[in-house]
Amino acid sequence: MAETIHLTPAQALSRLVPHILEMESAADGRRIAIGLAGGPGSGKSTLAVELVAMLNAVKPGSAAYVPMDGFHMRHAKIEAMGQTDYKGAPHTFEGAAFVTFLNRLKHANDAVSGPGYSRKIEDVVDDAFTVVPDVKVLVVEGNYLLLTEGPWAGVKALLNYAVFIHVPRDTVRDRLMKRHGEEGLFSAERNKAHIERNDLPNYDLVEASRDRADVIFDMVVDR
Predict the structure, then answer these.
(1) What digits encode the pLDDT tens for the residues 119-146?
(2) What sign has the CA pseudo-torsion 52, 55, 60, 66?
(3) 3-state secondary structure string, 90-108?
(4) Distance between CA 127 and CA 124 in Å, rounded?
(5) Which burial class, exposed, middle or buried, applies to 18 when counting CB atoms under 10 A from its CB (0-12, 13-18, 19+)?
(6) What is the enclosing helix (H) or strand (E) of 115?
(7) What is the β-pairing status of strands 112-118 and 123-131?
(8) Alpha-carbon gap, residue 195 to 37, rounded angstroms
(9) Cα-based distances in Å from 13 to 6, 48, 79, 181, 213
(10) What are the strands of the beta sheet with 3-7, ordered from one edge?
(11) Of the four, 24, 164, 210, 219, which is 20 to 30 A from 4 by CA?
(12) Could you read off the pLDDT of 22-69 as tens digits, one per residue?
């Protein structure tokens, strides 16, 4: 069973940074991957970006943010599959491509660009980030890093350290309603239906994978 620790996002960062720096030093120049997993709306992307910034403040250019969300299937492909109501579920990602990309990043000696995802347009953005050769720490963030189904099963072996971010289900519901509303792409009724039908079941699926992490952060957060 993974250890569960109750702490705030600031405390989580204070705990992670020295641990990762120690891991980097022990890697003797090899690139390491730190996974931040958790359900939608758990705050993991914000934490990942802040973690990269803090690592780079200590060692400039040593860390890079690698989001799983760039491996959403193209929206047109999801539409053609008739799966727009389930966009964001594991089967609407290019999971095998993500595993291949992460494996390439772990061993690359050249600059490698990767895709991102824009909530403004609800689609993938090519070449959203570039990992340069000097980077030694990959901060990998996404919902499905610890799943055992399908291509996702290949992710865990590529992570040198895996953190699971837990926040309460009701908090996630509130955050997702706010997030979808801020983008203004759909009605409040549609957003609520999508969250109940798709996002919260995805949250439940991801929560079932939490014990595969090296540590679980039970976050003390505001709603």
Answers:
(1) 888 899 999 999 999 999 999 999 999 9
(2) negative
(3) HHHECHHHHHHHHHHHHHC
(4) 10
(5) exposed
(6) strand 112-118
(7) antiparallel
(8) 19
(9) 13, 9, 39, 29, 17
(10) 3-7, 215-219, 161-166, 32-38, 137-142, 63-67
(11) 24
(12) 999 999 999 999 999 999 989 999 999 999 999 999 999 999 999 999
Which two structure tokens, joined as six digits, stand for 141? 């963030």
Q: Do 175 and 222 touch, CB atoms closer than 8 A?
A: no
DSSP category for residue 94:
-
| Claim: this prediction has a pTM higher than 0.90 | yes
Say yes or no to pLDDT of 214 above 90. Answer: yes
Task: Find, among 51, 173, 67, the residue nearest to 113 by Cα.
Answer: 67
Q: Pull the structure tokens for residue 153.
A: 């099963």
State both tokens at 99: 């595993």
Taking the C-alpha atoms of residue 96 and residue 71, their distance in angstroms, rounded to an integer, is 9
Is the Cα torsion angle 196, 199, 205, 206 positive or negative in sign? negative
Element (H, E) at 138: strand 137-142
63: closest CA among 17, 109, 101? Answer: 17
